[in-house]
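In this section we walk through a basic example: taking a raw amino acid sequence and producing a predicted 3D structure, encoded as discrete structure tokens. The instruction is simple. Fold the sequence below.
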Amino acid sequence: MLGIKKRKEKKINGESFMQGVMALMVSQVLIKLLGLVYKWYLTNREGFGDEGNAIYSAGFSIYALLLTISSTGVPNAVARLVSQHTAKGDYRGAHRVFKIAFATFAIIGLIGTMLLFFGAHYIANSWLAIPEAELTLVALSPAIFFVAIISVFRGYFNGRENMKATANSQTAEQLFKTIFTILVVEIIAICSGVDTKLMAAGANLATTLATIGSFFYLYLFYKTRREDLAKEIVSSKPYRTKSIGRTVKNILSVSIPMSLSSILTSINRNIDSTTVKRGLQTFLSEPEALKQYGILSGKVDTLVSLPLSFNIAFATALVPAITTAKTKGDMKTANKRVSFSLLVTMLIGLPCMVGMMIFAQQILELLFPNATDGAFIFQVSALTIIFTVLEQTVNGALQGLGKIMTPAIALLIGVALKFILNLVLVPIPQIGASGAAFATVVCHAVAFFIGFNVLRANMKLELKFSKFVVKPILATAMMGICSYAVYFILNGIIAEKLATIMAMLMAVVIYVLAIVTLKIFTKEEILMIPYGQKLYKILAKFGIYKEAENAVK
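The resulting token sequence is shown next.
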């Protein structure tokens, strides 16, 4: 009977830390693959290309800013508050946080929708100086309301360490977005005679439709579990209930500081949308300046954000995991999870950065054969990957610890530096749009080092220099040299695009083998991974690890 109760509690409450991370990571891989599909379609679609990307991205950047204000910090804030209640067995209090947060952010989301809808003309003409973006803003405005309430659902289930709700809803949303983007843009292209402005608006309308679909998925997910949740609430431990006003104050006091980092990230993108085109027009024609901005904000940002989306799983899972560990006084578990997450983040970021720098031109030609410009901008932008992914993980850990203002302050300093560098570098003809890419690298490097030093001062991290830096760099170097050698040998023997694909597949194989050969993970760390016990037995069978090897070296 006790076993059945435990299984049921696990079903409602969620999974282990790494199960949650893996669920989110698989979801993010699918999301980005789907994202590449529609971005590939748009960039190569006749009448869209880099110019359409510029209009699409300009509108989306403003939407993202309002979206961030209304919702982005909410999932982590709600997750943190919910996990505090569930750690004590106060399921009634956790559900009360959810209901009050839902009502609060529905109102905030509605305000954001109204602001974007009625302010679209002014924003497009006066702020962005891209009048063509007005319709894209109107098309995106309803999405703000839906994302605000979606974020509360996700935060509630994340706080209960059930990451599948977030993972599945995000995957469903991206699937809807990919399908709707292609359908809507094709219909508009046929009806309008390939009008770039209308096609860009249609692409953003697809985002709104996908968001509505994601909301209905989460509502059904919640509804199917409502009976179990009700039983859990009835059996909840009795705790003093806070007033609605006090609860709203608690939610906002956590969500606003958590949102600041995301708001600043969105402002960071808006710095590009408001300064790059203007800076480039000092020495380029308006169409060429718009095209260069489209390269930066369309193709390059999409590709560089790939590793960020894989790694966000750790940042998302760390907030409730560390909050729960801290509430229970189990900081040893928290230290291990953060150290492991930072190591994996390093192993994700380094090869992605190096691979994109080495194969920048080949990747653009492979994915965007009708718009291959921008290799140097891509290479410069790739430098930001390692700092941004590490910054993500550090911020998740800091927010879980309650240091919610530190990420915002660190990023504020970085954003200020980026703004100055954009104004100085972009108008220089020899630098141009790549100056904005370099400014982003500086921004996130500064933010990471500030956040990491604060985290290290508050946690006993298990990060040896040889394991955390030297071995990952060696594995990445082996990958880079061998994969480029494969490309160099095959190019000319087979088609260049096929040579690129073969080289990148070889890069993955070599990198995994290098990680295993260098024994970057300890036995204990391998056992943290889902199916880690089976994996360790296989490695021990091949003599890479010894069966009796100590868990920690």
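Looking at the output, two observations stand out. The two ends are 40 Å apart (CA to CA). The chain has 22 helices and no strands. In the next section we compare this with other chains.
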